[in-house]
Amino acid sequence: LGQACLEASIKYANERIQFGQPIGRFQGIQWKISDMACAVESGRLLTYKAAHMCDNGMNYGLASSMAKLVASEAAMKAAHSAVQIHGGYGLMKAYAVERYFRDAKVGEIYEGTSEIQRMVIANRLLKSGANIL
Which CATH superfamily is domain 2-132 in? Predict the structure, then answer.
């Protein structure tokens, strides 16, 4: 979902002309796209780490909680930024980012809210120490 937001935002930023140039040339838009890309990639890498640990018979509980937290929040932030980049169009059903925004919120709630994931992560770290990372 975060990747879809990123792709839609890049496409729109290259196509939408404002003040005689694509909005992707404006620093504010560039920063949103940069932050979006970093957050999405962080969630992806944590997810790969958890999957690798699971595939190799390692204890992946902490890694999966971290992946769920980071990836779901990255998707929500990406969706929010995508709506901002699209401006008024970002809330119109004609643009996919409107649906991405609604769908991203669900990711922060289902299968354990972000707050629950934070509790799980903190409890495991407080019990076992940072060396379990």
Answer: Butyryl-CoA Dehydrogenase, subunit A, domain 3 (1.20.140.10)
